[in-house]
Amino acid sequence: QDLLEIAGNAMENACKWGRSRVRVRAAATGPDRFRLTVEDDGPGLPPDRRDEVVRRGARLDENAPGSGLGLSIIDELGRAYGGTLKLDDSALGGLRLEIELPQAAA
Length: 106
Hints:
The relative contact order is 0.25. Helix content is 25%, strand content 29%. By secondary structure, it is α+β, with helices and mostly antiparallel strands. The two termini are 16 Å apart. Strands 1-2-4-3 form a 4-stranded antiparallel β-sheet. A hairpin with a 5-residue loop joins β3 (84-89) and β4. It has helices at residues 2-17, 70-80; strands at 22-30, 33-40, 84-89, 95-102.
């Protein structure tokens, strides 16, 4: 359920800001970890503001719909499971969100 919350928030954010393209990938990064990557072709996010947007309720654009909780939920849930969140520039032109998490035990 938490993974669905993480993935859903990441994709919803990309769809909200992307102009026409969103790319989602999931891949193992080792025997017990995996990475979810969500990219868009939107306006992106300046590097100096990326830490700011993961704070609960932080919104950089007050004119856009949303509560400002999506990225903070991804970050909080990821850290609760021993994961890491990274925001970077996307090759598509917008934002690339990567979250690496431990794989669930089978």
